[in-house]
Each structure stands twice: as structure tokens, then as C-alpha cells.
Amino acid sequence: MTAETSQTLDRGLRVLKLLADTDHGLTVTELSNKLGVNRTVVYRLLATLEQHALVRRDLGGRARVGLGVLRLGRQVHPLVREAALPALRSLAEDIGATAHLTLVDGTEALAVAVVEPTWTDYHVAYRAGFRHPLDRGAAGRAILSARQQPMEEPGYTLTHGELEAGASGAAAPLLGVTGVEGSVGVVMLADSVPERVGARVVDAAKEVAEALR
């Protein structure tokens, strides 16, 4: 801690991070041990976070992330979209296909940014806000592949006809961005994805990840 930082705020943020990393919540004692502070401090931190709906406690007294975090999270999408647009525009123009940034939203894949090419005669209409299961479509499958092999160099995922008849997709996961799980991809009307597209999508995913760090 430096003179310019707040110890209380730092502890509160650490509480939220600890709770976000568990599915079952944490007790006051567990939080006290992890933070290295006494239980009284933890009680005060939880009470403050509860007032802002950022933390809730179940009947057993275990603390969990509160619904207030979702309200904050909704404001993240516009920031992520803005950071990703330059790379998506470049990808769409280079490939001549609709480019998209997709993030995880619960058990679904959610397209939060879409850029269509300007010079093609036709392209796939793909809109921001479009949702689909994570296990269908290149965007979702790329995210799942990163979960299964988190330490490996990112590759790309190809699919055909899983979300729209006659359309093929290619996507690569975003890696190394704290708090963001997603992928960058393209969708095109074709029986298969040209060979160069996969590598180009991987590069675009790296560009977006760098913009978000």
C-alpha cells in the first residue's frame, strides 16, 4: 500500500474478488484468514458492501457476490465494445466478412460488438445482442476450448451451419484479460472458411485483448 491508496477500499475490492472466485461463498472466518485481518474488520467490510447490494449473505451466513455487481457489469459492455471496434473493423474489411466480439453471459454467448464489411456485395447479417448456446457456433466453441486448455497458445475454431444454414464461422478466444471471457470471430456465407482466415482471426483476438488490458 502507498500513501495515495485506501487500505479499506483495497480490502473491500479483495473481498469481492475472493467471493467472485468461489461458487459456494465464504464465511467471515474464511475471509478473515484469506485477508489476514480480524473478524471485526471483515464484518464491517461486508456490512458496507451489503448496503450497496454488492454482497449478500445466505441463511448459513456465507457471503456471496450480490446482484449489484450485475448492474455494474452492464456498464462494462459499452467500454469493451469501444475498445474492440478498431480491430473488428480491420478484420471485417480485410476478410470481407462480418466480424464480431462475443462475451460469456451466464451459460450463453452474447455478441456485444459487430462490424460488417463495407465493400462486399453481400454478407451475413449478425446483430449485437444476438445470443446462442456456448456449445454451438464458432464464437462459443472457441471460448470453451480456452477453458479446456487455458495454458496453450490460442488457436481458432471453425464451424459450418450451426447457427445459420449456409454460414461458416471462425473464432479465436480472448486470453489474458482479467474479468473478460470471450472471443473474436467472423461469419460468412460459404461452405468452408478460407485457410488464411483462421490466422487472421487469431491476430484480431490478440489485438482486442491488448486493447482491453
From TrEMBL:
Keywords noted in UniProt: DNA-binding, Transcription, Transcription regulation
All copies of domain IclR-ED, residue ranges: 68-213
Protein name (Swiss-Prot/TrEMBL): Helix-turn-helix domain-containing protein
InterPro entries referenced in this protein's UniProt entry, alphabetically: ArsR-like_HTH, GAF-like_dom_sf, HTH_MetabolicPath_Reg, Tscrpt_reg_IclR_C, Tscrpt_reg_IclR_N, WH-like_DNA-bd_sf, WH_DNA-bd_sf
Record's keyword annotation contains Transcription: yes
Native organism taxonomy: Bacteria, Bacillati, Actinomycetota, Actinomycetes, Kitasatosporales
Cytoplasm in keyword set: no
Domain HTH iclR-type: 6-67
